Structures are given as C-alpha cells and as structure tokens.
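Weekly structure sync, notes
Attendees: PL (lead), two postdocs, one rotation student
Agenda item 3: pending single-chain targets
PL asked that the sequence for the first pending target be pasted directly into the notes so everyone works from the same version. It is reproduced below exactly as submitted, 302 residues in total.
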Amino acid sequence: MAIPIILKTSSILGWKRNQPWKFQPMAAGKPTHWTATGLPPGMAINPDTGLIAGSVPDAGVWVAAVTASNADGQCTEGFPIGIDQERYWSETEPIIHPEAILLEVVLPAATVRLASGGGVGAAAKEAQVQDILNALLESWAAGTEDREAKQQELLAAFRDAWEATPSSGGTSSTGDNRDKKPPPVFALKSDDVRQLIIKFVDTEGMMIKVVPQTVRFSSKRFEPEMKVFSCEDFEVLEPGLIEMIIEPSGQGLNAELAESETDDETAINVLCEIEWTNRVGLHTLRTSTPNFHVRVERDLSK
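Predicted structure, written out during the meeting:
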C-alpha cells in the first residue's frame, strides 16, 4: 500500500445557492478515510468514500482542505468552492417555497413588488388565529368562574386577528372594494392597453428562472361577487421575466365605472390579483399574489 495522492482539480465553481450538488475527489493509493475542513455551510464529506455533497444557502468562495489517508500516511489538497449569488430553481424539485416568490412589476416611474402565496404574513396570521381558537376551546372545556369573560376576551382577539389587513395585500376587512380603499398600486385607463414587465424574484431580489404556463391578471368585487375584468396575454422574455398586456374592459368594468361616475371624474379602485401556474414534475403549481388595488379611470379620449 502507498500513501494516497489526491488527483487535484483546480476548483469547483458554477453552483448556485440552494442547488443540491455532489463532488467526488479521486486519489491514487487506495485511501481508507477522508476528511475535509473549510467546507461551506450545508456541505459534508463522506469519511469512507470522500464524496462531498449538500447545498449551500449563501453565495461566496471557500477553500476546502480535503485529506485522504490510509495506514501508510495522508495527503491534503485545497479545493476552491464557488457558489453563485443566483438562487437555484428546479423544474422537478423546487427549493424555493411559493410563498418566497415575489413579483416585481416594472412601471414607467417605479418598480412595485408584490408578495405571493397568500402574502408574507399569511402563515403567521393563520398560526395566530389557530392559537386563539385553541385557547378558546380550552376555556370552554375548563368551566372556570371567569369563563364568560375569558371567552369574550378571546373572541375579541380572534376577530382582530381575522380582520387584520395582510401586510402585503391592501384589501379592506369588509371585502368591499369601495370602503377603506388603500392607495392604488398603479393606474389604468379603461379600454386602453398597458404593458407590464413582471419579474419573478426571491425575498432578496434575485431573479428566479420560473417559466410559467399561464398568467392571469384579474379584477373582482365581493358584494355582489363579480369579475370586473381579466387578462391572460403574456410572453416569456426569458426565464423569470415576462411581458403582460393588460386591457381593462368589459361589461363588468363599465358597470362599476357607471356607479362611480361624478362631475369631476370617473374612476374606481378595483381589487386585483396576479395568478400563475407552472409545472413542477408531474404536478401543476398554482400561485397568486394577495389582493391589491388598481385605480381604473374611464378613458375619455375614446
């Protein structure tokens, strides 16, 4: 048996953040044990085979010292490992949860970022509501002297949590798109055509290379429930970047505008969402933004 000699590779580069990958260092001399120091977080080495595997959440460059050894001695070589800033997205096994996908809508004067998957605070709100419900059920079962007061306190907390406006949404707690209207995200003219450039990004603003199957920009009202208008025309400019054509028109929109007509202007805030689907393996992933408001004005030039 001879001292192991690691066959040197200059570097391990080109991997993305959160991308699962494997690297098998090779050595002559039949090593029986492998170790490594300086590996990036998320990576580990198999002590029997030397296989380095895992995924790295952060971008950067590391120099890992890999050692192969046997009964006759050992050999150590350094391997630079580079992880790109770009976030990994797999069509068959998405590393990024849908709630971590945001939409950046590029407008002439600004870029607006919209959350997805029901809003950034949706999961926390659901957990809060569930905790309050659990406490309410426990108080009913306990039969304590102050049960009625406790129940009223918990019911009030439940109502507050349930009616709280989502942090990224912009809908009113009543569901009526004419009450408590927040500032609109942007403005449209009826029967006009508007180009929107929409980018899929992660929570750090890095583009995710999603290629959606369908995209729909729709507007609705709740009381009575009615679709105001809907647009589904889009073009993929590159993975993660689409162009969408919005044309607010139709009987529903005209009826809404007619109800809000005044001497000064004819304009309404309509409740909108952007919904898209893409294939993940054998399944279709359906995701949408929380509701947001868009100001629609009657196009008087036509």
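Discussion points:
- Residues 122-163 form one domain.
- Confidence is low (pLDDT under 50) at residues 118-122, 165-179.
Action: rotation student to compare against the earlier draft before next sync.
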